[in-house]
Design a protein that fits this description.
Elements lengths: L6 H53 L3 H5 L10 H28 L10 H33 L5 H13 L9 H20 L4 H4 L1 H8 L2 H15 L8 H8 L1 H13 L22 H27 L24
The chain binds protoporphyrin IX containing FE.
Subcellular location: Membrane
Organism: Streptomyces buecherae
Membrane topology: Multi-pass membrane protein
Length: about 325
Amino acid sequence: MLPDTTPEGAEATASRGRGRRGADRVALRGDLRAAVPDAAAALVVTAGVFVFLYVRMDSGASATVAVMPFMDDSRTYWMYLLSQAFGWSGLLWAWGTVMLGLLLSGPGVARSPVSRQVLERWHRTTSLTTMALMAAHAIMFAAELVRYETKLGWIDRLWAGFADSFVPGWYDSGTGRTAIPIGQGALYLAVPLGLLFYVRHRIGPNAWRRLHRFVIVVYVLSVWHTLLYGTNVWYDEWPRTVLWLLQLPIAALFLLRLVRPARRAERLGGPDRRAGGPRQSWVGRAAGRVAVVLVGATVVGVIAVVVSGHDGGRARPADPPAAVPHEQEGTP
Ligand code: HEM
């Protein structure tokens, strides 16, 4: 259909555009309000994890202290513990929101006892909460660094905390040189990919749908960051096994979503002339088939990791190392 180029038509199009933009803003405000109970639940979970980590530090069972013995003081390092707690609630909420997203885009939604609308609302609110939790995790880490850098003046302290936490490549110590940029990548991708939904009328629903698929990358980066850097999953003990196990349902649902997507147009099979309707391009189908092989291999890999116990965890040493992993700025 040709666009209506008369002044009345242009005005009607502009007002429709304004109306949609307004609707986007209303949708975001509505979802933010709807996310309040969800965010409150996330705070309760974060508080629970914080208390657990705090008590473990006091009892001498903390893996974090085994990795970094200088941290054996929960009163001093409470902000670090809170950062860890937000990291865990963020990862748990990311897990939940990805599961909901995969349920919605895969075959499961038809058999779900909960309506599609409700699942969609939960998916949107949990994804808003996830972003906030991820940000809180990084902010508390920055706050701890600001507290820690006692040898610097205030401006330099603030800058050191900010740059080490938020500027990719700035943090220059140990595994953090790789793990922190991976976490930053997850955070920086999560925000635009999550919030694009609220501007989908401006960019077009198809562009939104195509971009939103990449949100799985955020999740993969988050898990990778945690496996690489989380001191509570540093050793080959039960927390690391549980973390690996939790990836099985995600990988399985992802595989199902690729093989039997809810949207007919996303099916990987060749053109079905009888069914009619839009079909994947051959590039899309080829990419989809490669993804099926990769995700299938991931399912097998995760099972092999859990069954074999070769999960990349180190053996907890009898005598913990006495090294300070991140020297204070200004230390000669
Ligand atoms: C700016 C981005 C980020 C920064 C600066 C950052 C920083 C850190 C640091 C320093 C640690 C090590 C803490 C420890 O001793 O265990 C860590 C661990 C962790 N991070 Fe991140 N992170 C970022 C993004 C993320 C994201 C997006 C997630 C996903 C939810 C995440 C989840 C976690 C988890 C679950 C741990 C393990 C904590 C533990 O072992 O108790 N991080 N992060």
